[in-house]
Amino acid sequence: MIRITDLKLPVSAGRKELINKAARELKVGESDILSLRIHRRSLDARKKPDLFYIYTVDVNIGKKSLKKARSKHNKFMSTPDEEYAVPLSGSEVMSERPVIIGCGPAGLFAAYLLSQQGYRPLILERGGDVNERTLKVNRFWKENSLDPDTNVQFGEGGAGTFSDGKLNTSVKDPCFRAKFVRETFAKHGADESILYEQKPHVGTDVLVNILESMRKEIESLGGEYRFHAKVTDIEYSGGKIRSVTVNGSEKIPCEVCIFAPGHSARDTFEMLSGKELIMQPKAFAFGVRIEHPQSMIDMSQYGRLSGKVLGPAAYKLTGKASDGRGVYSFCMCPGGYVVNASSEEGRLAVNGMSYSGRDSANANSALIVTVSPEDYVGYAPPGTTEALTGIEFQRNLERAAFEKGRGRIPQQLYGDFMTGTVSSSYGDFASCTKGETSFADLNEILPEFACRDIGEGIRSFGRKIRGFDRADAILSGVESRSSSPVRIVRDENCVSSIDGFYPCGEGAGYAGGIVSAAMDGLRCAEAIIKRYRKLD
Fold first, then answer.
1. What is the pLDDT of residue 350?
2. In the chain, at which end, N or C, are there fewer CB atoms within 10 A of the end residue's CB?
3. Looking at the whole model, is its pTM more than 0.90?
4. CATH number of the domain at 99-279+493-531, please?
5. May I ask the CATH architecture of the domain 2-78?
């Protein structure tokens, strides 16, 4: 196979034009190309409204044609080996099968790999399966009836299920774990474009089916799922994990436990804070969701409307406020919805979500500022364990959002936010939300420094995307779950201060998004495989 880079074609061009371009680059006939696979595709919008895709492709032209292939631009080479490799099994013996707490992306992919390699894991999930979860989340959005264990944050698939399903990551990947993650999603029903798009996404509606398909494969290989199985205690002795307790009563023996509860398992972190685990507060970010008409974003990014050929446009914005604090967009959802993502009674958090079609009228993203433990320690009640101070800061924000919005998503137009005025109606476009909304003054929810920095950030971003700072842009609060405010310390073998206990994924402080969490799940599973023999 030959890899060719930097093939530039108009976005309207199809596979036939791509094969022709590759053949001309190699100076062979189209008939010499036996197969062509897209390795990467990115959008070039520098000359908008004339838009182009830049391709990297892997081509098979056979040995005979290879001898005459030439490229005056030196754009091709042999396709490198980029396959994910599973380590060899270790020699230690497990008397019990490994236990995985949580089946978000980290727990899911840890379970998937361990099942494939013969370790038959037991997966414990506090929430329901993805079908039950979908019903309860939709009921919550319609009726505001929260189930604290099965909601947008908890249940099969974790918080990533009700999101845009973005599969891009900035994490370095020399072992090709991200490639394995994308290939697994494609195997279980995702569109194959996720294998090569620069910014792949799946969508909530497709993720639901993928999760169910992966669960069936895991079960067919000897893994076992138990839903509504909340871990309420762990037991250890001699510095080693011995058991986990489920739902306050059932004790399950284990000597290997992957802890992947997600970033919102606050009661679980409270339980662990009394154990011999080294836990630390960590920096995270918070702020609001901002909505604009998707057509406005398309015109800014593409110079034209997206139409049938292009998907709705995305953006990524970063800036610095006058106090030196970073302000940036996060989890941008083209053609998406702002959703009520609460998981605790009396507290309210928002997130962004898109279906696979990304076909709502609005674009939304989080606009957030970073806070360190030094920033938020003063917001925790006296006596709060140091590692949990960030959780208390989040809870304070979410309690204020719930109260000011009277249990609904509090919203405010940007112009009113800047003057401290409660909005009375939307402007030229309405909000696209999942969950009830109410107008409120977000200045009464967020700390003063966050309001100032977000306001400055929006003004600055208006110079990058025309209309971003329009007065009727819709702000929703509060975006408080961008990442975990806690880290459970682990060593180079992914083991915590309790032997056999493997903190994993976003909740444990080692990931931020679907792919990075899934990669960390693979990393922890690999550590177990390298240490232990397969189960008999």
1. 98
2. C
3. yes
4. 3.50.50.60
5. 2-Layer Sandwich (3.30)
